[in-house]
UniProtKB/TrEMBL annotation:
InterPro entries reported for this sequence: Ig-like_dom, Ig-like_dom_sf, Ig-like_fold, Ig_sub, Ig_V-set, VSIG4
SMART domains per record: IG, IGv
Pfam family, one: Ig_3
Species this protein is from: Molothrus ater
Gene from which the chain derives: Vsig4_0
A biological process from GO: negative regulation of T cell proliferation
SUPFAM superfamilies assigned to the protein according to its UniProt record, in alphabetical order: Immunoglobulin
Domain Ig-like: 17-112, 125-196
Descriptive protein name: VSIG4 protein
Length: 196
C-alpha cells in the first residue's frame, strides 16, 4: 500500500478571514487512520493545535480554541480550517497522520505548509442593480448593492451627486433600497468601501 499526504508548501491567508490548510490522502484498504495531529511553529512558540484519535477531536492550544476544525465527512481529507486569522497565526504548520496496518504496525507521514497572513485593502467596489437598466417607473421599488473584496470587516457608504458636483451622504450599509421611487430620486449614486 502506498500512502502520500498532499498539500501546498505555502499558503496566503487574509487577516480576519478564514483559511484552509490543505492536507489529504487517498484512503488505502487495510490501513486505518489512528491519529492526526496539526502542529505549528511561530513567533509565540510551538505546539500541537488539534489532535484527532478514536476519542474525537481535541484542541490543545488555547489561542486556537473555537477557531479550528478538521472536516468530518470526507475520509482522507484532514485539512485544517482556521477562522478569523490573526497576524500572529503566521508560521509553519505540520499535518501528521499515523495509520495502523493489518499486521498492527504503525505508518506515519507528515507534510509542512507555511502560512502567511496578509492585510488586504478594500478593493474598488462594484455596484450591482436589482434590475437591468436603471430607468424605472415612479412607484416601483428597487435597490442597489455594493460589493468589495479585502480584509473583513468592510463597511460601505452611499452618496448621491448633489449640485455643483458635491457628494451628499445617504446611508451606510451594503444595500441602498427604495420601497417606492419618486421622480426626485433620479440622479447619480456612488458607493464607497473601506476597511481597516
Amino acid at each position: 500500500a502506498f500512502l502520500e499526504l498532499s498539500g501546498p508548501s505555502e499558503i496566503k491567508g487574509v487577516w480576519k478571514d478564514s483559511v484552509t490548510l490543505p492536507c489529504a490522502y487517498v484512503p488505502v484498504e487495510d490501513l486505518v487512520q489512528q491519529t492526526l495531529t496539526w502542529t505549528v511553529v511561530h513567533d509565540k512558540g510551538s505546539g500541537a493545535i488539534i489532535r484527532r484519535d478514536d476519542s474525537g477531536d481535541q484542541v490543545l492550544l488555547s489561542e486556537y480554541r473555537d477557531r479550528v476544525s478538521i472536516p468530518k465527512a470526507a475520509p482522507g481529507n484532514v485539512s485544517l480550517l482556521i477562522l478569523s486569522l490573526e497576524i500572529s497565526d503566521k508560521g509553519t504548520y505540520t499535518c501528521q497522520v499515523t495509520w495502523r496496518d493489518s499486521n498492527n504496525s504503525l505508518i506515519a507521514k507528515e507534510i509542512t505548509t507555511t502560512l502567511e497572513v496578509v492585510k488586504v485593502a478594500a478593493t474598488k467596489p462594484i455596484i450591482r442593480a436589482a434590475e437591468p437598466g436603471l430607468t424605472l417607473p415612479a412607484g416601483a421599488s428597487t435597490s442597489l448593492s455594493c460589493e468589495a473584496g479585502g480584509s473583513p470587516p468592510i463597511s460601505y457608504r452611499w452618496f448621491r451627486r448633489g449640485p455643483a458636483g458635491t457628494a451628499e451622504p445617504l446611508s451606510s450599509g451594503a444595500e441602498l433600497a427604495w420601497p417606492s421611487l419618486r421622480p426626485s430620486d433620479s440622479g447619480t449614486y456612488f458607493c464607497e468601501a473601506h476597511n481597516r
